[in-house]
Specification:
There is one protein chain. The protein is mainly alpha-helical. Strand 1 and strand 2 form a beta hairpin. The chain has ten helices and three strands. The longest helix is centred in the N-terminal third of the chain and has 21 residues, at 35-55.
């Protein structure tokens, strides 16, 4: 259920941050990405918040919101680069956005880490609540992990507010388009799996090959 009271929007019991910084971040991502990324990013915030509640952690809502909004920005122009992992593109943009709006270096770094690590299994769970909750939100929406932590009414409220029609196919296409031009940046990440599935002839860089063919003589 979505409720709007006293200018606050609440979805599935989670209040959407509406500070000037949050509003500007919302407008920026809505205007510069696309509906797939925007709706997915809002679901990541909502699912991340719900998972945090279920798991007993308390992220700062505004920092989690900014992390969620920017976490996939690096998949699309104008944020997509040619020479680094897409996660770093979004992390860099979010960090710059927060610093430009007077946030502390510590808060900006927390959001940077939340985005940079959101495709790295397990590590985020041990870090700050905002970092963990960003990954929990991503894993819920993309991988369907921990859905049993949530009530059906909560899931329905989130997906009614931010629908996910044909989401599996569309997000895989977005991933492919987001880093097929920089395949080497997927080394050692789950992103290499996407390219192996959807880019003909692509083979991931093999860690064993890197060791065996290194410059060391033995």
């Amino acid at each position: 259920m979505t409720q709007t009271t006293s200018n606050h929007t609440t979805i599935a019991g989670i209040t959407i941050p509406d500070s000037p910084l949050a509003v500007e971040a919302t407008e920026l991502i809505r205007e510069t990405t696309n509906p797939l990324i925007f709706h997915h990013s809002r679901r990541v915030f909502l699912f991340g918040s719900l998972q945090a509640r279920a798991l007993g952690i308390t992220p700062d809502p505004e920092l989690l919101y900014v992390a969620a909004l920017f976490h996939d920005a690096g998949l699309v122009p104008p944020y997509r680069s040619d020479d680094q992992r897409f996660e770093l593109d979004g992390a860099d943009q979010a960090r710059a956005f927060l610093l430009d709006h007077g946030c502390s270096e510590a808060d900006a770094q927390t959001v940077w880490l939340a985005i940079a690590l959101h495709t790295t299994p397990e590590v985020p769970y041990k870090l700050a609540p905002e970092i963990a909750a960003t990954t929990f939100g991503v894993e819920t929406d993309v991988l369907g992990l921990r859905l049993t932590n949530l009530q059906k009414a909560e899931i329905d409220a989130v997906t009614t507010a931010h629908p996910r029609p044909d989401f599996k196919r569309q997000i895989l296409q977005a991933f492919t388009d987001g880093f097929k031009h920089r395949p080497d940046t997927t080394f050692g990440t789950v992103n290499a799996d996407v390219l192996e599935h959807f880019v003909p002839g692509y083979r991931h860089i093999d860690f064993v090959d890197v060791i065996q063919n290194s410059a060391w003589p033995e």
